[in-house]
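ping. complex inputs:
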Amino acid sequence: MRGAKSAKWVAIAAVVALGATACGGGGDKGGDSKAAIDPNGKFSVEVGEPQNPLQPANTMESNGSIVIKALFSGLVDYDSNGKIVMVNAQSIDTKDNKTFTVKLKPGWKFHDGTPVTANSYVKAWNWAANPEHKQTNSAWFADIQGYDDVAPASGKPKSDTMSGLKVIDDNTFTITLSKPIPYFIYKLGYEVFDPLPESFYKDPAAAGEHPIGNGPYKFVSWQHKQSIEVARFDGYKGPNPAKNGGVIFKNYAKLETAYQDLKSGNLDVMRQVAPRDLPVYKQDLGDRAVDQPYSAIQTIAVAFYTKQWKNINPKVLQGLSMAIDRDTITKTVLQGTREPATGWVAKGVMGYQPNAAGDITKYDPAKAKQLIKEGGGVPGNKISIQYNADGGHKEWVEAVCGSITKATGVQCTGDSKADFQADTNARDAHQVKSLYRSGWVLDYPFISNFIRDLFGSKADGNQGGFSSKEIDDLIAKADSAKTLEESEKLYQQVEKELPKYMPSIPLWYYKVNAGYSEKVTNVKYDQSGDPIVTGVEVKK
Amino acid sequence: MGRYVARRLLQMIPVFIGTTLLIFLMVYALPGDPVRGLFGDKATTPSVIRALRHEYGLDKPVLVQYWDFMKGIVLHFDFGKQIASGRPVTEILGEAFPVTLRLASLAFVIEAVIGIVLGVVAGLRAGKAADTVILFFTLLLISVPVFVLGYILQTVFAINLGWLEPSVTDPTDFNQLLLPAIVLASASLAYVARLSRTSVAENLRADYMRTAIAKGLPRRRVVGVHLLRNSLIPVVTFLGTDLGALMGGAIVTEGIFNIHGVGGTIADSITRREGTTLVGLVTILVLVYLVCSLIVDLLYAVLDPRIRYA
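pong. complex structure:
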């Protein structure tokens, strides 16, 4: 407890120091936007308590991953258009999309001073893939040759290293996949592929409490349920060094409270404004309010395993889609927090094409009625949309239902499950009665993540049982393309085909509705809706 | 007296087992699996799920799980591990309880002191202006929901006037806890005031009061000893059970002021289906309730000498 206490004092001292610098900056208000920048200034970001220990392959939810992203750097990263940027990798070359040769930039070091080598990657991946170590993201290694020997679906593992990973020398290693994937390099940007220092394996649990990474920030302290503090790592050699002295991730149980703190200057950056404050936040914050889409989409998915939808004519689903007045609902019920979708792939993803779904996302009651009639009508003339009551979905589900009923006369009700757990439970057990709400935030910004991983008949994200031989064939073709560009083009064609099959009804893209304090500037948000902490500048 | 206390303590054992078993079964009966819940919409491998379920003993029958859990508590004071973070539950309890204890005791003091003072003032002046004002004030506190009061006080005192902090950054600082404690105490404070007012007004007309005044005792002694002591029995009963409610039921207040105490932790563990964390928290709350009610019963004897425990 003694150690914890002194750490808290450091945090308080830092906050006090910050307060002092903030006041000092208030004096010369003249050149507001051009205020002097303090390269060592620290700022705070609102987050919740990370669910898991801070181990890269064990972090799925956003509270943990924003911290992991600050502490660790992987081989590659993406820019805001979804283009690949080399980080720790010098080059990643392949001739057949099956074997990749990774060359590391030499001279990188972990925060404890030990060098980052090819072995830091290979050993970390083998460790995380092993089901014994219970890493929640271990399924990500399934593309690599030999994964089934390490983590067989049943029975005892045959090996504890994947045969597809080979260290050539200190700065070079090769990855062999079990089958070619032209966009595998995109997957490498996910935190699960980060390297681990040698000290990690001595006590992984302790390392999860006090992580040592190779990223732009080094770990300082974690006061559970209070705050996590990281400081700039001066030995960082990547393309995105921190432009500030450090970050304090402050834990808030309620976004409303965080917003109050933001207004009173106790908090600098928010990730999302609570519904209560949405009507006023633009007025309150002025040009410090953020309103931009990120790469996530909400859809109404179809339970194709039910009697109702088993052999449905896609025209019926097209009709239902055209009966939804997306423009009005996003503006009124959702208070501008979503943007109407025009396809199945979200913005900011490589391969996104505007208006991919054509007419079927446009509101047209007459056409909707006609399409449903042509398709033989909705079986039972009654649908329900399952959702979880704890996620703030009730309002828009009711609005969508109202819109459908008004336009087509099809009866529509919301089917509420108490919480997200109960909702996923029903989906996993194939107990959804008709339709269900589904959301998808990108894993990596390549188009396949929104198509193959959701609509391939064997994909894990395909919970509704959609299955089409034609789409599967097209996906297989796109997966066996020679180059990334070609694969992207083929996937774009798949998306163009989707209206004929209607695997789900696209609704809208998510938006970041957030804001930041007067103390910071240059706050940008990435594809997953998180602030890019390295770029934030703190005013003097 | 000693035998009475011993008997009451022994009675706690079946209550303790009953409540924990009931809560354990209720969490188990909720749909949803805590391990599957970690993954949300995303994919995972069956072998990892299996390994995780095994680690937390979720692959065993529920009664075996309960038995193992109780064995851990009684033999090693081991409450198991929290799913997802893998941290020991005792550590989580150790973080949450001191915070809540501080908040609850501060609220308790505010509630008891202000509540009883208001009640006595109103009771002594029953029917007069002061009584009406206090009646109005307490009705207002009871009828305004906690979250409304919380946000109003936060906006007025912290944001507009800037006297207090809008949220709690350091839960060891009683200055920061003052505002949430007032909010938390408000409703109970009104009940305490109403209870003591009625009781005082009633006892004012009792025979022993007339005797005490007729004896020529000073007014301070009449009110302070004879009147208060006899009027406090219903108030003490209420305060005793309310301490438990202040600790476990502060979810709303904790959320508004960003206090990471027991209430929020309980709500979290319910949504995450973490039976072990939940039972650990509730077990301690049950013990607090049991001890409080025992203390209340013992206080009766102190307040009213006619009550004896053989």
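The longest helix of chain B spans residues 89-124.
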